[in-house]
Amino acid sequence: MTHTIARTANSGLAIGGLTCFAETFVHKQTFVLRMNFSAKNPAHRQAANRYAQYFSDMIVMTSDKMKHITTIYLLILLLVSCGQYKKDFKRETSLLDIGETHKLYTYEGGEGNNTIVFESGLGVDGSTWLESGIFDSIGKNNQVIAYDRQGNGKSTPTNEARGMQSLVNDLDIVINTKSANKKVIIIGHSLGGAIARVYAIQHPDKVKALLLIEPNNENFTQYAKMDQAHEDTLVRQFATEKMTGAAMEASQLIENVSFLKQLPTLPDIPVIVITSTKTDSEMTKESVADWFLAHETLGKGITNFVHIKTNKSGHFVYLEEPNLVIENIRKLQR
Predict the structure, then answer these.
(1) What does the pLDDT read at residue 34?
(2) Which of 66, 211, 252, 312 has its CA 20 to 30 A from that of 157?
(3) Taking phi first (over 0 means left), then psi (-120 to 50 degrees means alpha), and beta for anything else, what does residue 279 get?
C-alpha cells in the first residue's frame, strides 16, 4: 500500500523553463522522496540536480520519528528555492537620440545592483547577445543593456567613417542615459572589447569591471601590420553585403591600432579576458600564441586580472560557449 504524504509542483519558472516537481509517500513503511526536474538551460539543470541530491540526502539522514515533519519542511524549502528562479524578465527596445545626428536602437531589461552593458564586435549588432541567451540569463538578476552601433541593425544608417573615439562617445551616452547604477560592468567582444577598454580608461569612475572576449589588440602582429589593401578589402566586403555600419567601422581599423598604442594602462579594476586558442586556417599555432600574449598585456598594473583560454570555441566564444561567459560575468558581479 502506498500513501502519499505530500505532493507539490512548481512549473514554468524563469527563462529556460525550470520545472520542479516533488512528491513524498510511504511505501511498505518506507518514506520515499521523489523529485523530478527539467530545464532547457543546462545551468538550471545542474542546479536542479544539486537540489534533488541535497534534499534526498537530508531525508535519508533524518530519524524515523522526524521524517514526516522534515519531509514537509523540505518540500516547502524546495518550493522557495525553486521560486528564486522565478523572476519575470521583460525585455524592452527603444530608439535613443544621440544629439541631432543619429539614433541608436537599444535593448534593455532586468534590474538589480549591477548594470551589465554588452558591446558587440565588428559586423554584429546588439541582438547577438540576445541570440546567445546570455542577455536574458544575466538579466534575471541584473539590469542588462545592449545596442546596435550606428549603421548596424536598426540604428540610424551612416556613410561616415566611425573611428574609435566616436564609438566610445556613443557608448558613454548609452550608459549615461540607460544605466540605473553608478558603475557598470562592460562585456566586450572583438572590436567591442577594444571599445570597452578605451571607455574604462577614459571613464574609470563609471566602470566596475570588464569582461573582454577575444578583444582587438594592437600588440597582435596580424592586426598591427594590417595594410591599406587588407582594410579596403574588408570595407568592400561589408559594403557588398549592405552592412554600411560595419564598413564604416572597418575603414578605421588601421587608425584604431595607432589609437590603442597611445593608451595608458587600464584602471585597477577587476578584468577578465577570454582568449580562444583554437587553431584554424587563419589562426595557426604561432598566431594563437601571439594572440594570447597580446591579451596578456592587458593585465599590466591590474591587481585582479584573470586570463582564461579555451580551445572549445573560435572567435565567437559567447555563441559557442555561452555558459563560460555567464559564469565569468557572475564572478564580476560579486
Answers:
(1) 52
(2) 211
(3) beta
DSSP bridge pairs for 146:
107, 118
Q: What's the whole-model pTM score?
A: 0.76
DSSP 298: G
Checking if the pLDDT of 326 tops 50, the result is yes
Question: Looking at this protein, which amino acid is placed at residue 3?
Answer: H
Q: What is the pLDDT of residue 74?
A: 56
CA-closest candidate to residue 139, choices 149, 147, 129, 148: 129
Mean pLDDT of 14-32: 47
Find the mean pLDDT for residues 58-66.
Answer: 52
Q: Residue 121: CA atoms inside 13 Å, Cβ hemisphere, count?
A: 14
Q: Are strands 143-148 and 184-189 parallel, antiparallel or unpaired?
A: unpaired
Q: In this structure, are residues 255 and 163 in contact, taking their beta carbons and an 8 Å threshold? A: yes
3-state secondary structure of 36: strand
Please report the domains of the chain, with CATH numbers, ordered by start residue: 2-83 (no CATH), 91-333 (3.40.50.1820)
Handedness of CA 292, 297, 298, 303 (dihedral sign): positive
User: What is the rounded average pLDDT for all residues in the chain?
Assistant: 84
CA dihedral in degrees (133, 186, 14, 79; nearest 10)?
130
Contact 276, 190 (CB under 8 A): no
Which residue's C-alpha cell is 562585456?
187
Residue 28, C-beta contacts closer than 8 angstroms, at least 6 positions apart: 1
